[in-house]
Every structure is written in C-alpha cells, then in structure tokens.
Amino acid sequence: MERSPSESASNNNRPQLDLFELLDIDDRPTLVFDLTNPHGIPTYHNASLEKIPLLGLKLGTGVLSKSASSKDQEYAAFIEWAAEPEGQLAQWSYCGLLWSSHILRDHWKIVIGSEGHEHDYISARRRQSEAPKLGRARTSAIKRPSHSPSQSQIKSMSDGSLEAQIAALRLRDRRPLATPATDTSVISESIQNLKVMKRLDFLGVFPAIASTPHHKFFMEFDWASTGLGPIDSWSINLRRAVYFLFSDPRPAALYWGGQRTMMYNESYMHLAGQKHPGIMGKTFSEAWGDVASDLDPAFKKAYSTGEATVHDDALFYIERNGYLEESYFSLAIIPFLGDKNTTGEQSFEKSEIAFYNPAFDTTRQVIAERRMTFLLLSSNLMSSSRNQREFWHQLIVALQPDHPDLKFAVIYSVNLDASESGSEASDLSHNRHWTLQGKIRFENSTPGIPIAATEQSMERFLPKFSDLVRSESPTLLRTEDGSLPESIARDKSAKNGELVQTAVFLPIRSTADTLLGFLIIGLNNRKNYDRDYQVFIELLTRQLATSLASAVLFEEELRQAARDHKLLTKKLAIQTHEALETETRFRRMADLAPVGIYHIEPSGLMLYCNENYYELTDHPRDKFAPMSWLNVLFEDDLPHMAQEWAKLLSGEPVNFEIRLRRPFIAEDIIDGEQVGGYTWILAAAYPERSSDGIVLGILGCITDISRQKWMEGFQKRKMLEAVQLKRQQENFIDMTSHEMRNPLSAIVQCADWIGGSLDKFECDKNNVVIPRDVIEGYVEATDTIVLCAQHQKRIIDDVLTLSKLDSDLLAVAPIDVQLAPTIRKSLKMFDVELQNNDISLRFEVDHTYSNLAVDWVKLDPSRLLQILINLVTNAIKFTTTESTKNIVIKLAASLDPPDNSTIEYLPRINSARDLTNGSAWGTGEYIYFNIEVQDSGRGLDEVERTLLFKRFSQTSPRTHVQYGGSGLGLFICRQLTELQGGQIGVSSSAGLGSTFAFYVRARRCESPQGATPTLPIDSLLIPWDVHPKLVAKSRTRPPQEMKLSVPRHVLIVEDNIVNQKVLSRQLKSAGCIVSVANHGREALSYLEKSRFWKGLETAGNDLSVILMDLEMPIMDGLTCVKVIRQLQDEGEIVGHVPVIAVTANARSEQISNAKESGMDSVVTKPFRIPDLLPEIDKQIGISSMRGLERSALSPA
Questions:
Q1: What's the predicted TM-score (pTM) here?
Q2: Which SMART domains does this chain map to (predicted)?
Q3: What is the largest CA-CA distance in the chain?
Q4: Nearest to residue 915, comparing CAs of 817, 1004, 981?
Q5: 164: burial class by Cβ within 10 Å (0-12, 13-18, 19+)?
Q6: Domains of the chain by range and CATH?
C-alpha cells in the first residue's frame, strides 16, 4: 500500500500495531475472506467467533470437511453472502447475530457480527429473504500447511502492509479451518431447500414477510394474551403442529393445551363465517359456546380412548353470508400428544393432549339429498292419483312431514262454474272460485286464510293475486314488502314464533294455459333462496304439473305424461349426479333409478341389484346363488343369454333384448286390444376390467320395453290389417263397378229394345197396333229396368252410408212411431220381388209386444228399416235358388236386452257411440225391440260366419259372382244397430237356413196429437202373410184409372229438360194437368197468373201443387219457396200454396233445411209415380182443409 510523504511521516510516529492482534482482542466475531480466492473459504477468524457454539463447531472442528454445508443450508447461504465480492445486502442475520461486511483494497472482505436491535435483525432477515440468491461456486478446498511457521517467517511478514499481516496470520494460525468439499449442485440444492424451509418456518425468531393475509394475521395476533404465550416461546411440537395446520389445504382447526386454545388455517375461515377472526386464540368453550355441549362428548371420548372420532354431516347454525345459516359439516377430532407438563420426564402421563380438527362443508350435498328424497317421495305419492281429489290429498300427505325447506304450505284449487269445464280453466278466466284444499303446519283457526274465495277476495288475501296466477314460474313473496301476509308467515315450528321471511307462490297447471290451483310454500329462514333452492322449487313445480296432468287427463295424455315423467326423471338423475358425488350417494341414486341396475361377479353371483331390478324380474330377494338370475329369464331365450354372457366374460360390452318369465299385463285397452304379453327388457352391460385386462365384474342395467315391443307388434298387425283392408277396398271397387255396370247394361239393352221395336209397328194417323206378346215384353223390360235401378240405388246407399259412418256424420233422428204397422207397411215394397221369385214371406208379432202394451215409441224408423230391408233383401237373394222358399220375420219386445241362447250376438265395436241417451229420445221408459229374419236359404258354415259383418267382406268369393252385392250391407247394419243401443247376431248352419237377429233400444212416448187411430194391439198379433199367388192375382187385374173429383193441376219447376219431360208424361198419364217452369223466377211468374194471386181468385189459372227442384240456375228452389211464403205473409198470395221439394239431396240435414225454408214435404230421387201421387194428394188435402178453416173464420 502506497502512502504520501506526509502520511508516511505521520505513521512513523504511530506505534506499529498488528491487525490481527486487534481482531483477536475484539469481542465481536470476525471473519476475513480473500476475494481473489475462488473457493470462498475464510482466511481468518478470531477467538470471539469460536465462542458461538454452533458456528464455532463448524469452523473449529472441521465439520465442513465432512460436507456439513450440504446438511446446513442456512450456513451455506451465510458463507455464500460473506464471500461475495459485490453483495446486494449490506447485512445478514445468522446464529442470532447481525453481520455486516467491509471491503478493503478491493481484495479483502472483513465480516463482523454484532448483537443489534431486534428491529435491525428483522429488517435484515426480511431483506435477505427478498433478495435473489447468489450461485457462486465453491468447488475447491484450501490445503493448510502441515507445519507451523517459524518465528523468522512471522517476523519478516510483520510489516505495516495488510497483505503482510494476512500472510503472517496464515502462518501463525495453526488451527486448521474447515474446508467445505461440496460441489456446486449440492450447494444449489441446499439453497433451494432453504427457500422451502423458510416458507414453512414462518414462525422463525426473525420471520420474513407473511406469504398470505391469513399468515400475516396469524403472526400479528397477540398470542401473548393467550395460554400459549408469544410465538417465540412455543415448543417445537406446537410449531410442527402449526406448520402442519397451515400446510393442510382442507378446512382445519387445532386445539392446543388443557384449555384447548384454538387456531385455524385459511380454509377454515369460510367454515367459521362471521365468528372469524373473533375465535382465533380463544378456548374451545369461548369460541364455540353455542355448540360446545354437543361436541364436548366427542372430545372427552377422543381424550379417554386416544382414538379419533368422526361426525358425518353434523348440523350447525353459523353466522355467515350475512345471516344465521343452516350448515352441515363432516368433521374429525384427532387426538395427539402435545407438550409435556414437566420438563425432563419422559412420561406420556405428563404430556398434554392436543386435538386436530379437519372439517368438510357438506351443506350442499346434504340439502340436495334431502330435497331429492322429498321429490322422490312426493312423486311416488302423487303419481298414483287418478283424479284431482286424489291428487290434492296425496299432495297434502307428501307435505305433512316436517321439512326444513318447506316451513308451511297453503293449497287452493279452482272450483269452476257449471258452464265452464276443467279444460277451459285458462288464466284469463274471471269467474273462478277458489277452495282451500289444505293448510300444513297451521292451527285450525288460523285467521286470514279463507276457506272459499272468489277472485276479488283473493286479491285482498294476496296482493297482486291476478299477476301471481298468470305468472309462468314460481314467484317469491316477502314479508318486508307486504307480498307475504304476516298472518300466514309465522313459523309455528319455531319455539319463539319466528316469522317466515319469504315464501314462494307456485301456480299449478295441467297444461300451459290451464290453471287448476296454486300452492304457497314457506321457505327456510336459514337458507337463502339461491340457485339450488330455485332448482328444487322448479322441479317441485314441474312434478306437480306432471302429476296433475296425469290425474286429469289419464287416458288422453298417458303417453305425453310418460314422456314428461321420463324427462323429469332424467333431469332429476342429472341433478342427483351433480350433487351426490360419493359412492354412498351414488348407491342411493341407483336404488331410486327407474331402471334395474346390477353388479355381477364373473362367477355369476349377484353382488348388488336395486329395487327396480327386483320389481322387474320378480327375483327372490334372499335367494342368490351363482347364475341364479338365469331363472328369471324366458326358457327359450337362455341360449341367447349364454352367447351374450360369453361375450361379457371375454371383455366385450353387450346390448341386447331378452324376455323374462314374468308376463307383462297392463290395464290399457287400445283399439279393443288388451295390452299385454311377454315381458321384454333391454339389457346393457359392460365388463369391469383390471389394468391387466382381467374381468373383475359385470356392471349393467335393464329397462322394461314390454310396452314398446307390444306396440311394435300392434303396429305390425295394424299394418297387415291396413294392407288387407286396402286389398278389400280394391276388391270392393271391382265388385261395385261390376254391380253398377251389369244393371246399366240391362237398362240400356231394354231401352234399346223398346225404342227399336216401336218403329216396326203398323200404325195409322191415330192408332198403333201392338201385339200382346210385345206388350208383355214391354212389361218385362220395364220390370227389369226398375229392378236394375233399385239394385244400383242399394249399392249407392250403402256407399253413402259407409262414408257417413267413417266421418261420424250419420245421424239418428228419433220420432214418435208405431213400430209394428210401420214394419208391415215397409214390407209391401217386396211384393213384386217376392212374386217374381215365388217366395213366401210371413210377419209375426210376439205376445211380448201385447204383454208390455207397446204403442207409440221414440226411435228412428228410417235407420231401423234400413237394417231390416238389408236383411230381407239378403234373405230373398239367398232363398231364390232354393227349393223351399220361405222367409219369416218376427218382432218381439222386452224391458232388458234380449238373451237368446240360439243367437250369437257380435260384441260392440265402439261402446261409447250409443246415441239413444240424448235428450231427443225423451224421458220415457226404455224398451228393447228384437227383430229376427229367418230364411230357408243354403245357410252358412263356421268359416263363412266369421267373415260376416266385416267391411268389404262376403262369405266366399263365389258369393259376389252368384248373388252380387258390395260386401258392405251387414257391416253397415252392425254399425247402425250399435248407434241405436243394440247388437246384431246370426244363427246358421250349412244347408239349414239362417236366422239374422238384431235389437235396438227405444223409449215409450205419448200418442201425438192428431195421430191417426191404428188397429188394436191384439189385432197386430195376427200373422201377416205375403203369398206369391195372391200377389200375382192382384197384378193380373186390369189397371183402373184413378178418377178424382177435382183434377190435379201440377206445376213442375225443373231445370233438367229430360227429367222435366219424363215427369210431365208420367203425371199426365196419371190424369194430372201439368205446367212447367225452368227455374224459380218462372215459377213466381206463373203464380202471379194463378188463382192464388190476390185479385185473381176466380179468373186466374188453376194450380193445386208445385213440384220444385232445389238446385237450379237464376233462382234455386229454396230461395223461391222463401219468396212464396213471404208473399203469403204479406197477403199478395191468398191461401197456402202446397210446395213439394223433389231433389237428389237425401241427407237428413238437407231435408230439414228444405222444410225450414218453407217446403211442405220432400221427395228424394229416385222415386216412383205410385209413391209420389199419394204425397201430392195429401198436400192438396191439407191445403183444402186450411182453406175451409180460413173461410169459416172470415166474417160473413
């Protein structure tokens, strides 16, 4: 070191002092490092340093040569800082001392330790923890000389230079310094471990800055005021326990010492709720005074037995989230040895017991499980409801048990007016009345809850009631805003009568717009109305809607209800899966699943199966053996099961359908078919395998698909029936075409023969000579034309009737009628056909008719005669070719449906379609009429009888060829019979003839006013016969012209010229005087010139009756007759003009419409002149009677 001259002179006056002599007498521990030495080994240390026990041991005894630095990371870090040429930290704390460093001549670094103030130590520790760690290598060791330096060597180095003094120190110090032999990787690893230890050892004497706010809170807490004392006085056992507590990611608390002083980690803060931070450092009784009595037994048991105790889902009420919350925790109390009461004695009896208390918040799972249990229980109860009354009762039963989430319940249902049905109870109705169905957890005399109320009174009971019932979702009610009346808000289950703060209003609908009731549920004050609570209420709302819809529309919406239930079950399963995550909760969910779930060993032993599996398979609950579950399978399907089982054992998942022994029986009847058959299941299974591929078990589920399989078969049968029906329809079209063309061909040929033969006759100007044989041919041809036309009419009538039946348009119109005379009159229509075929017909009235004094009854004679005429026509058709040709018709009466053992009646196709219960049938006594048609035809065998009464069916393919027909007649008869409350049947054997019988239901009625007297009842019992010979004699009589005292003046109003000419010619042949008009306006013009017009009573044209068509151009018939009746009312037309409608519109509605428009009578096309003339005479007679009455009433 160079000095200035002045400095040298000054120094010459100073005494020569040795640096190391000064350091040796310094009471501060000192180290000197040579910064040029890359190994970072201290070159010198004084005697004061050796007084530090731990540091002296490391430096003085050569421990570092045994890699002590790798074992003491804190020492290695201190040496690294001390030997660093340019350290970032001026101070370092180690071994309870504050070390500072000084660099001299950029070559030497002197490190001195001192006992500074605690603040200085803490600051230093904080700075060194924040500073980046240096990684300078210390790889080589310095070899100390083995011999001691000589005195001359020391003296020669004792000059004033620092280098010389250091060199002298090296020779003088015979004590070897420790030489660390660790390599760079060991020191780096040690430093990294030191960092981890510092993070864990946050309770050090001079701790670094806390890593979390909770650490900071813990460190700054006044522990000196507790029984544990300040942190620096804590034992190593307590520190270790605290380290473990803060390292535990679970919520956990530590209770230390006899007073059980409490401390807890950061995760525990959520559990503590609003008790944090007040319970930190408190004794157990101070911290948990409200629950201390409940947990004291657990602590005592753990203390006395030394074993941990576990409490699953323990209930606590904790102030958190701003209110006293219902909470559940699964916690453990684990005892372990704490500090010893006396020092120096190694005895467990002298040790204190500490408790470690980990806890898990299970609030959400427990409450979700509780709510799911309620939903499943209520679903089981309400799903059995078959009507609304049962539904409300089952809902009350479900809500009756105490439930923390349902504090009270008020149930109202809609009581509709008589004019409003349940399906019309929309939210817009204002005439609803509400009935209280039940109130749960209320006193019987609770004021303010009306038993019955209108919409207006409900508005006083619940503010904004109309908005509540129109809401599509549940509405929250609060006491604080007045939406929840205080009269129903008081919680009767609370000891202090605490008010329920919130409730929810649930409108109950069977469909989207059909409101049938509502439910008010009080909510739990100890649980916020959070998302989970809302989901629970929404699930309950959907459950109520589904169950109610099933009860109200059980038959009509059964499939829809099943889909809703499936969707609800799926959502419940998803919700349960999310909330219930443990194996126990999964087992509970499996037990409640709507499918059978099972677990089978590879040996075939059933390990587990849920309740649904037992119910579906009927497997005995206590009789499980290897492969015993095969006994529930259908025997024929066992080979299939063996194949699938082999796949499972080979590790392949399977999915297959199989049958069970248990039959499938349902209460449903679909389209007349009972739902039932085999029980089918859909089995899905997969093998559970180990990591090496060994099958450990079989997991799977089974689903009941019996209804689906039945529906598949049902649809297949219906498809085959549809194909068969289509084939029958095609055959029907072929038969109908054949039956229509054959008569047309005969008609055309007869007409051609008549027209062609007329040209060959000899004639003069006025007379034509026609041979008798030609006239007889004309008569035969006309008969043929009439028969062909009637045949075509029957086929057309059958087709039209079938169309009405298919469209439900066929009406049954009852009138007052005497049945026996009506049947006699209708049978006259068969006179010609019976004579032509030489068939004898006999009509008999049974004595039961007179026994019951049957006279006038209410029934539809046209429909009854339609059935009878069809049966008689068939009898004639099948009797014509037989040698014996007899037909007997019998009429009987009874008060109950007839029970004839010889007649096999067909079951009703549609029992719901019985029109005799309508108001038009009156209120008289029910009476049944039984009619039998017995023929001597060829009869029917068993196969032919099975085809009767089916649509488009005949007894055999030859029937159509031999007898003709459409195959619709008996099918229509069956339908018409059932519409009138009756049935039809047959008794027949091949070769012995057939007896067709049917009965209908009617009501007695009074004789109508003005009714024509009929024969006495006894005279009706005399059989009425039609013999072919008698008919033939009547036909051979020469025709006599009908002579009338007053000629008929007929006006024909018809737009069809051909019909106009034909009808005019026939009426003229009958002796009528005929005029024609082409439409309604011409008819009115003719009336203006007739005797009916005012002022022309004596000078006008004669007119007796008008025959008017309905469908005409310019003015149709209905409009024309309305004008005529209006002119009558105004007096322009004098008297009543008889008007008869002649139309092809044959439907009953069209006939009724014509009469309402003003027609006196209706004759439908086609018709015969012998049938028309009596109707004309009848209307002329009625008109004449009216004229006489009017003349008698007029003044003389």
A1: 0.36
A2: HATPase_c, HisKA, PAS, REC
A3: 196
A4: 981
A5: middle
A6: 5-198 (no CATH), 210-361 (3.30.450.20), 366-558 (3.30.450.40), 595-693 (3.30.450.20), 716-810 (1.10.287.130), 816-1036 (3.30.565.10), 1049-1193 (3.40.50.2300)
